Every structure is written in C-alpha cells, then in structure tokens.
Amino acid sequence: MKRSEIANLIDHTLLKPESTAADVAALVAEGRRLGVKAVCVSPNMLPLADTGDLVIATVCGFPSGAHKSEVKAVEAARAAADGAQEVDMVINLAQATTGDNDAVEADIRAVREAMPADVLLKVIIESAALTDEQIVAVCERAEAAGAQFVKTSTGFHPAGGASAHAVELMARTVGGRLGVKASGGIRTPEAALAMVEAGATRLGLSSSAAILDGFED
C-alpha cells in the first residue's frame, strides 16, 4: 500500500491520562502534517482548534466500559456538542463475557441514540478479552444497535490489543456493512499492514509517524 493510503486509515491517537493541552495541540499539528484521517483525544480536551480537514474523534466510557449506560450517553452527547464527529465507546465487558447480549445492545443503543445521526459511533469490544463466539455476538449486537464501526481494543486492557485473527473475525461478521478499526499495540509498518490485510478499514495509532515512514508513495 502507498503511504497516503495508509495515512487515510489512521486515527492519530493520544489518550494517556497525563496528556496536556500542549500535547494535544502537538498531536493535531502532527496529524495535519502526516495527512492522517482523524485525531482521537480524551473528551476533556474538546473542542479542538486548528484541525483543518482532520476528523475529530473521542472516546466514551473509556477505558473500562464499566459505566452506567445513561452516563455513557450523556458523555457522548456532550462530546458531540463539543465538536466530536466520531465517538469510540467501550462496551460493558462483564455483560459480553457472561452472554448478556441484550444488555450489550442496549448499552450501545443508548449511546447511539444520544448523539446526532451524523456523528459516527465506533464500538470498542476489547477483543483480546473475549472468545471468538463472544466477539461475533458483540459485533452482531453493535450492528443491531446502529453503530458504524466495531473496534478491537482500548489499548489499556491487560489482555492485550489488536490481533489479525480478531480483525478478520470481526470483518467477516460485519460483512462490510460496518467498518472495522484495529487499535492497541500496533507499532510497526508490518503490523499495520497485517491489520489492513485482515480487514481493518481504520487504524488507531499513537506511533503514526514511525509507521508511515515504512511506506512510500
């Protein structure tokens, strides 16, 4: 793939809790220089300035997902009001691992319905903490609830981040009807390419510059 093609898949991300406003401004500037698709920051950093053509993304219920649905909904609505064009929400993992898929769907739907229709919703499923069967079930419920993307990981869970296996399974489950975002632990050009080849249509990266250096136009 060409450098520009990879860049157009990247959510250039900074979600460390100690990140400052200056760090976020530097992220935005770097994102514009690199020509990435979007920047993804913590919701307290919104609204952002000097973003140019960048898509503005944020997170919701992050990183544990162990928030009441109404709290996630309020957080997502506020993020949209503050300029977020995309919101990456974390599911309730306990609901997913115990098979309470109706609750998983209701949680996602609460966030989807709290935002304007033109704000894109990505659902973080923490694929490394789920079985294949659970991954499929959660992806199906995300689609039923009206999400536009499923996403592998927060990057903060001890079980790990993205894997090509999980991405392939997620992509096969949603069948092109939803996007698939691979995120968490992708630090090399080879790893990024493997995720795209597995079916990822978006990449959540904090090492965007180093990864893009591995591709040529």
The radius of gyration is 16 Å
Distance between the termini: 8 Å
Strand order of the largest sheet: 1-2-3-4-5-6-7-8
Question: How many individual domains?
Answer: 1
Note the main sheet.
8 strands, parallel, barrel
Helix-strand makeup class: alpha/beta
Q: Count of DSSP helices?
A: 9
* Secondary structure: helix percent: 40-55%
Total beta strands: 8
Summary, kept brief:
The protein is of the alpha/beta class. It has a single domain (3-212), classed as TIM Barrel. It has helices at residues 3-7, 21-34, 69-81, 93-97, 101-114, 132-144, 164-174, 189-198, 208-212, and strands at residues 10-14, 38-41, 55-60, 86-90, 120-124, 149-151, 179-183, 202-205.
Structure commentary:
The structure is a single chain. With 217 residues, the chain is of the alpha/beta class. It has a single domain, classed as TIM Barrel, CATH 3.20.20. The protein has 9 helices and 8 strands. The chain has helices at residues 3-7, 21-34, 69-81, 93-97, 101-114, 132-144, 164-174, 189-198, 208-212; strands at 10-14, 38-41, 55-60, 86-90, 120-124, 149-151, 179-183, 202-205. The chain has an 8-stranded parallel beta barrel with strand order 1-2-3-4-5-6-7-8, surrounded by 6 helices. Helix 3 (69-81) runs parallel beside helix 5 (101-114) and helix 6 packs across helix 7 (164-174). The chain is globular.
